[in-house]
Amino acid sequence: MADGVRPMLMRLRRNGVHVGVFLLGAWAWAGGLLPGLLEQWDDIAFLGWQHVELVALSGGAAILVGVPLGILFTRPRFRRAGDIALQVLNVGATIPTLAVLALSMGLLGIGNGSAIFALFVASLLPIVANTMAGLRAVPPPLLEAARGMGLSTRHTLFQVELPNSLFVIYTGIRTALAINVGTVPLAFLIGGGGLGELIFTGIALNELGIMLAGAIPTALLAVLVDFIMAQLQFWTIPRGVNPLR
Amino acid sequence: MIRLHQVSKTFPGSTVPAVDRVSLEVPAGEICVLLGPSGCGKTTTMKMVNRLIEPSSGDILIDGRSTSDCDVTQLRRSIGYVIQQIGLFPNKTVEDNICIVPDILGWDRRKSRERAAELLDMVALEPGAFLHRYPRELSGGQQQRIGVLRAIAADPPVLLMDEPFGAIDPINRVIIQDEFLKMQAQIRKTILFVSHDIDEAVKMADRIAIFRDGRLVQYDTPDNILAHPASSFVSDFVGGDRTLKRLQLLTVRDAMLADPPRVRAADSLKQAVATMEEHGHQTIVLVGPRGRARGYVPLQAARGAAGTVGENHEALPTTIRPNEDLRTAVSTMFRHDVSWLACVDEDGMYLGYVTLRGITRLLSETYRDG
């Protein structure tokens, strides 16, 4: 029964979304908002691309550094370092991202570089933490079986540990990217560019059109990134350990 | 062949050895059950064979080669390993789980996949239905069957099994044990099998090694362990009903009197009485023209009566096959309130009979000799 009900609910929801988007569009057009947005198109495209670059560079670097770091901290040799790292990360996660941006500016000065660095740091925390949590949650019998059958540590990592913690690792990446995309507009404040420029300009000039020209694409981007992550999570995690399938 | 020579293990931070100078030899193709209460050192002993635990002293040889001379991962790849928690990899399909060791040994993929299908066939799991399932889609019993198949996939000569059937419900456990014994009859692996269940040990073992506080206290065949426990610890451990347990080690054939006198339907009761008196029997079985057991005649009823056997016999309450174990035989006797059973083959041909007294005599033989 649940099999029949769920797709129906999803279809209903999708139809609802379609209708909602259409009404919103009609209202925006009639109110002169949409033509206003289109006037800003060049700015939106330029700053939007900058925005995407910020997300991709900082988020990508965070993944490339965070996952191996998480793996390293769970190796027996670095177990103690891992415990300490986890404490540091937990404390670090409580620092507001705006503060991270400010600190980064203090360190690296105004500009693109310090924005990317701050975003990288903010995204790194959940990725490392979740990678460690995922790897530490792999059931010990799996590791004993792997060892007993003569799998090397590399085999064990790639064939047993990582696949079985992939879901938790992905969740960390998803959280990190959500924080990242949400923080990018603030990067404007330390000279990082991006759609934040439109938003803050709009607020400063009290121009609703300009502000929305920044806000709406930012929101859409956040939804899009999360959607892509969800799809990746669904399709790339083996079916046997994927709670979504 | 597995040989342990004066093997000891003292864990760091402990003064008492967990395993203390254990020597034993498991001949090729036999199952040796390491038996004892928790903490007696049986699991530690087993894990020293594939060096999951390194021995503190002593030597372990597999087919004459010391395990300490082997590369540890190569050694483990050449020894099958089954654990109680099964430990199938949930991210891999049944097929890929079975093929793990062949894959890391670099077998040809098609060959290893064919082998996986063959192995599934051996434990009566339909390859087409199971090869591409994931462990979470299997029952506990099915998972452990796959766990055993995974251990023997690369055809290692030696198998270590750490309470492999301990977490399976009693009904399925018996089925899997029987299945495993049938498989073992074909594959003839040399097996170290850890258990804390005396019944399982008696059933599975060619030899039982009983451990206490890290020492090997008795190493012998199941029948000898049950009949002649070496110490009060062993006799307490195997239980007060140990002689009854011996019943399942023996088959009806062992206690059966083969080819006894019999009568046919056309024979007269007088002839029947004469035959019985000649052999000192209280009953005689009536067979059909081709030798099938049809019924029986008791001496008391036949004595002094007239007529043929065919008109005056009684129906056999039940029969038994010669390959059943004696526990089943005795249980059948008690259930039907009789003290003897006619043994027949699968076609119903009369082969002989087994009596309660005969069974008693068989069981007590070993005590008289000793």
UniProtKB/TrEMBL annotation, chain A:
Gene3D superfamilies given in the database record: MetI-like (1.10.3720.10)
Domain ABC transmembrane type-1, chain residue ranges per copy: 48-229
The entry's keywords: Membrane, Transmembrane, Transmembrane helix, Transport
- For the keyword Transmembrane helix, the answer is yes
- Compartment list: Cell membrane
Entries under Pfam families matching the protein = BPD_transp_1
Q: Where are the transmembrane segments?
A: 16-34, 54-73, 85-110, 116-138, 167-190, 210-229
Q: Which PANTHER family match?
A: GLYCINE BETAINE/L-PROLINE TRANSPORT SYSTEM PERMEASE PROTEIN PROW, OSMOPROTECTANT IMPORT PERMEASE PROTEIN OSMW
Name the family: Belongs to the binding-protein-dependent transport system permease family.
For this entry, the protein name equals ABC transporter permease
What species was this sequence derived from?
Bosea minatitlanensis
Automatic annotation (TrEMBL), chain B:
Q: What keyword terms does UniProt attach to this protein?
A: ATP-binding, CBS domain, Cell inner membrane, Cell membrane, Membrane, Nucleotide-binding, Repeat, Transport
The membrane-topology field of this record reads:
Peripheral membrane protein
UniProt cross-references to SMART domains, sorted A to Z: AAA, CBS
Q: State its Enzyme Commission number(s).
A: 7.6.2.9
Against Pfam families, the record matches this protein to: ABC_tran, CBS
Subunit and interaction comment: The complex is probably composed of two ATP-binding proteins, two transmembrane proteins and a solute-binding protein.
The keyword Amino-acid biosynthesis is assigned to this record:
no
Catalytic reaction(s) noted: a quaternary ammonium(out) + ATP + H2O = a quaternary ammonium(in) + ADP + phosphate + H(+)
**Location relative to the cell:** Cell inner membrane
Domain ABC transporter, first and last residues per copy: 2-238
Output the Gene Ontology terms for molecular function: ATP binding
UniProt name for this protein: Quaternary amine transport ATP-binding protein
Keyword Phosphoprotein among record annotations = no
The Swiss-Prot or TrEMBL record describes its family as follows: Belongs to the ABC transporter superfamily.
Q: Which residues form the CBS domain?
A: 311-370
